[in-house]
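Extended Data, panel c. Modelled sequence:
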Amino acid sequence: MHRTLGLVLLAAFVLCANTGWAGLSVFEYPSAVLDLHDADGSCWTGMDAAGAYPVRVVPEAWLVGPPLSQESAVTLPTDHWIDLAFSGRLVDGAGDDILVVETGKAGEQALLFITDGADQEYLLTKIIIDNSMKQELSTVGIDLEGVTLPFVPRALRLVGLDLGGQSPGFDLSHVRARVSHDCGPRACCPNPVSGAFGVSPYTKLIWTPGSTADRHVIHFGDVATDTPAVGVQPRDANTFAPSALGLGRTYYWRVDEVGGTDSSVVVAGDLWSFTVADHLVVDDFEAYDLRKDFLYETWQTRGWAGVSLEHRIVKSCRQSMSLYYRYDSTWPCEVVRVFETPQDWAHPQADILQLLIRGTPGNATRGAQLYLALSDGHTEQGVPYAGDPRILAEPHWTVWRTALADFDKIDLASVTSIAIGVRPATTNPQDRGAGTIHIDDITLRPALCLQDRDATAPEGRLPADLTADCAVDYRDLRQMANDWLYDRTRLVAVTAPEEPILWYDFEGDARDWAGTADGQIHGRCNFVAGVYGHAIAFTSPGDRVTIPQAAGVFARAREAITIAFWQRGDDSTHLNDTICCSDYVYGQSNPALAIHLGCWRNPGQYRWDCGYPWSFENRLAGRHRTKDEWAGRWNHWAFTKDIRRGRMEIYHNGELYESCTGAHTPITGITSFEIGAGWYGHYDGALDDFRIYDYALSPAEIAHVATRGTGVLPHRPHAASDLNADGTVNFHDLALLAAAWLRSGLWP
């Protein structure tokens, strides 16, 4: 399942939280899957209720609530991860507070993070299963005693690290955690978790009421600054069902508590948000098999049609539907799915019915007409394919979109069946033929921004749509005016820095040009073209460079430090990879120094940890603004700390990127140091010109290092208004904007 998002259903599970729960904590199973990533893009596999492997699994069904059985599991190989949310706040109690159950003892490993369900996390431990090669369950307990967090913990993230066992990877049976619903006077524990993506359009909003609330006033809307009151609930109620949630849209809500003794006292709630999934799956053909869930029992044929499962020709995951067609003027030829329960396609405010189709060379196309048909049990209506019927013979996947508004005779709130067929376009008896096509991923989508405002056009906005609202209008002209005469080339003042205390140029080795600590290369690192000569590339989990004399090197940087390097990432284990870090022991001690950068499907996160003992006060963290800050090109990064000023800074391509104050903890306790791997997992990518200084470089000194003294900054941010990409915004760009004036790409 993909997080474009596939559909990460945030179906709530336990969630009977009420005022009677205040002060109590109970063990619960997860209530939702917040996010997940399949690095192979091949869908999730694992064990079914009978323990059979490999089978296609749905993590939401396997891991939300109790497990299907003691035999079921979801497999997390290397670079696979999943975020599991709970209905309340994770808390410490007597004994273990988190129980992770894995099936099959084959030395599997996974990282376990506790998170706020959004952008803050803490790495609890590395789970290592016994390697006795027995097909038994392993229960790993984690005690939260002594763990202090600056955020409300609502979720757990598990990251697979290995390919151990006959089902390669960490086989997650289930997770339970100690959860509290004690809120105090203010409503808390929203479900969906605030900031969640991929929420079901049919979800109900659930919260834990405040301890003194007599009634609840629910505010809800799609604008953060305008959430009108939409309902009042009595004391014992804690759910609200929005009338309709649109696919891909973000909503905001809060619950104000009105006191029981004084109705004039209102405790305003926090503002929460969630984003609905960007599509709804009708059928992805992954639930069928050759044992009991037969495709032909669900997709029934009419006329000459025939269906079968296809495992070689697929667009996503493991299988698609193969449809044999034969059309003439005497017989229909279609395949029909009748839904067990009528489908409400009006509620999610969908605009498009989309599927993927792949033809076969040699298929008959003359006089053929592809069509989709829907029925509401009273009326059936067909809509023909609007494109070229020759796609029946094209051996590549084509997106077939149909506007739901075209089914104007159907009650879309009660769709009872869907049919896909091929028929003659006319009554000409010569219009006949046969062939085989493949169908995959039937989904409902919202209105889309298409490049040519045509059903067959690829997704994407017009270049002149500067404000990304799928239209070229006065808003884009205003944006261009703001960017007018912007010049990407920027010359800044530079000052040569003092000599570094460690300097690896990675010209075929890890020689220290500062002369004190040559590095040792481990694993299968190789050398590739870099910014200056060669660079070192890390591609495998065991790849790293260690500094044997680390204690001596960092003894000179107890009060201030700068770490600078060129970096080009390829992939991330999860939201971020460890570029470099000092010594640590999972679950016992955290590194005094660590740099994490990352990017997976979208811009990931950065983390700059500096200070001993480790603390959140000595962490500078955030989310990358664009994907190319991490992947696809070389970027220069510099990380500084000066404990006398209590200031930490991050520089990106020679310019200040982020900073914080109040970080006065000294840089001590370092006995080892590694590059290319570490605390959060291994780094996939290349590094060049890695330097460490024993003081916090000034902006001019960092610009000198990033530009080799030229002062011409690399990769200055590109202005969206620079439509011809010549580095400046001028009349040439205005002419391109005028050529697209008042064009809209929104379809339908």
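The CA atoms of residues 122 and 149 lie 8 Å apart. This feature is highlighted in the accompanying rendering.
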